[in-house]
Design a protein that fits this description.
Keywords: Membrane, Transmembrane, Transmembrane helix. It holds the Pfam family TrkA_N. InterPro entries: K_chnl_dom (IPR013099), NAD(P)-bd_dom_sf (IPR036291), RCK_N (IPR003148), Trk_Ktr_HKT_K-transport (IPR050721). This protein folds into four domains: 2-109, Helix Hairpins; 121-252, Rossmann fold (3-Layer(aba) Sandwich); 253-277, no CATH class; 284-352, 2-Layer Sandwich (Alpha-Beta Plaits). The chain contains twelve helices and nine strands. It has helices at 2-41, 43-46, 49-60, 73-109, 128-140, 172-177, 192-198, 204-224, 255-267, 271-279, 299-308, 342-352; strands at 121-124, 146-150, 162-166, 185-188, 229-233, 250-252, 285-290, 312-316, 336-341. The protein is elongated.
């Protein structure tokens, strides 16, 4: 008896679940069949099958323009049946669509949907630092999408180009839902909860989680044969050596580097203002990356040409000493950085391209 009750319950649950899946196809079939019956009953009134579809839709929507109407008794009787059975069906159909839109929006806000775009930036970990990073990215690029990965119940911000994926960033499945292989770059912020609660007890825990995330990213890169630029925040500078076996391209300034800047500000007043200008796009002058031009053979050629255009060449990758080797040949794979304003970089890029 209990087994029979369980089977009946399973059948009922299955039918309820099936109803949700077949309702929309059934509603569309109902409209098409009703239109066919109406056209068969009164072919002279409805001229074509498309016209009868139009009439059924306007009737069920209770719009009733009056441009077409049945004239025979059978046609009128069919119309009455259509009113009784169809109007309720359309109401359910519209409700179903509204509910579907609501569920999609709920899944999106709750971080349960997969991001399917590309050339986006992934921010791992929500904090005031990631909030500032979002604002900075939006100022720098008006078209790029941002995907946040965290374990919050819902998206921490609501922006048109901001998407949220809820989950553990050390889990490859979570990273794949953020479409990591198609991303432009990833920024890993130190876990705020771990930092607030455990950093003083065991500093390795904060950077340890960052290392696990970087390991998961490296694993996906190897499996998908992709190369993604990864920037990581490391709280303790001595822990950077732990990242040697994973692919992290750059590290966000550590506590020691910030302390160094603070000390230098005492001996060289205004140095922190200079750092702020270089690190933020809200100032007129900031740092940009440019490509090597064919007419530049040496760093001196590039330096003088850029200076005449209103820009200053400051580095090749991490080498800040190019002013001491101006006559050296610029390698083909050089990564040049300059300081200038937005108008100047726009002019330089337009000439390069």
């Amino acid at each position: 008896m209990d087994m029979m009750r369980i089977k009946v319950k399973k059948i009922i649950y299955y039918l309820i679940k099936l109803r949700g899946k077949i309702f929309i196809p059934f509603a569309i079939l109902y409209i098409l069949v009703a239109a066919y019956i109406a056209f068969s009953i009164e072919p002279q009134t409805f001229e074509s099958y498309l016209t009868s579809v139009y009439w059924v839709l306007t009737t069920l929507a209770t719009v009733g323009f009056g441009d077409y109407a049945p004239v025979t008794d059978l046609g009128k009787a069919f119309t009455i049946g259509l009113y009784i059975t169809g109007i309720g069906l359309v109401s359910l159909f519209i409700g179903k669509i509204i509910k579907s839109v609501y569920l999609i929006e709920k899944r999106k806000v709750g971080g349960k949907m997969k991001y399917t775009g590309k050339n986006h930036i992934i921010l791992i970990g929500w904090s005031e630092k990631s909030k500032s990073a979002i604002q900075e990215i939006f100022k720098s690029d008006e078209t790029i999408d941002i995907v946040i990965i965290d374990n919050l119940e819902k998206s921490p911000m609501m922006e048109e180009r901001l998407f949220y994926v809820r989950g553990d960033a050390t889990d490859e499945e979570t990273l794949l839902r953020a479409n990591l292989p198609k991303a432009k770059g990833v920024i890993i912020f130190a876990d705020q909860i771990t930092q607030d609660n455990y950093a003083t007890k065991d500093p390795l825990l904060v950077d340890g989680k960052t290392l696990l995330v970087a390991t998961a990213i490296t694993s996906i890169e190897e499996k998908t044969n992709t190369a993604i630029h990864v920037t990581a925040e490391v709280i303790n500078q001595k822990h950077i050596r732990l990242f040697e076996r994973v692919k992290v391209d750059e590290f966000i300034p550590t506590q020691e580097m910030i302390s160094h800047a603070a000390v230098r500000s005492l001996f060289s007043h205004g140095v922190t203002h200079m750092y702020s200008e270089l690190m933020s796009s809200k100032y007129e002058e900031t740092m940009y990356e440019i490509s090597k031009q064919d007419e530049w053979r040496t760093y001196r050629d590039a330096f003088m040409d850029l200076l005449n255009k209103g820009a200053t060449l400051v580095a090749d990758r991490g080498d800040l000493n190019i002013n001491q080797k101006l006559d050296a040949r610029i390698p083909d794979d050089a990564q040049l950085f300059i300081i200038c304003d937005k108008e100047t970089i726009s002019k330089i890029n337009s000439k390069i391209h």
